[in-house]
Amino acid sequence: MSDSATEPLKLIAMDAEDLAVVSAHLQDAVLRRGDIAWLPAEGRFALVLRRFDWEGAAHGSRRRRLSALHFDRVTAARSTGIAQGGAGVGADAILNLLAVTFAVGTEPAGEITLHFSEGAAIRLAVECIEAQMKDLGPVWEAVATPSHPEAG
User: How far apart (Å, rounded) are the C-alpha atoms in residues 112 and 103?
Assistant: First the structure.
């Protein structure tokens, strides 16, 4: 008997609606600055995250999964609040991903933003939305379930 809450995810995003689904699964994922790679010659931006398994939490478990996320057809990448070295967030600092959004430019191009806690962000100029998220295998018990205070 298979427990769907334990099945690894593999998601592809080709439009803003798909990207919203990926974002929901990656809410509260954590990563280190060193887990991010910008490959301009390939037009690819990739990161490895430790995502909280929200689907599993709905079934009573509290786990994190090692996952990969990459965006193709990226023409530029810039960040706010995430330093390449020196001041700001270093390579070993932990980043908490809150959401992934898309703002339309000249269709189908636009800007994908990865929103992190404390106002940090990565903005990707893209020719179009072409992203993939995949669980890589390792699963472990999470220390706590992420929570967000109600905005007042």
Answer: 6
- Rounded to 5 degrees, φ, ψ at 94 are -90, 130
With tokens 């909280």, the residue in question is 52
Based on the structure, what is the number of domains in the chain? 1
Mean pLDDT of 119-141: 93
Provide the residue range defining the domain that includes 125: 10-137
Q: How many CA atoms lie within 13 A of 58 on its CB side?
A: 7
- Is residue 36 in a domain? yes
Distance CA 119, CA 130 (A): 25
CA atoms within 13 A on the CB side of 81: 13
The helix (run of H) or strand (run of E) holding residue 56 is helix 54-57
Is a pLDDT exceeding 90 seen at residue 87?
no
Q: Is 1 part of a structural domain of the chain? A: no
Confidence (pTM): 0.85
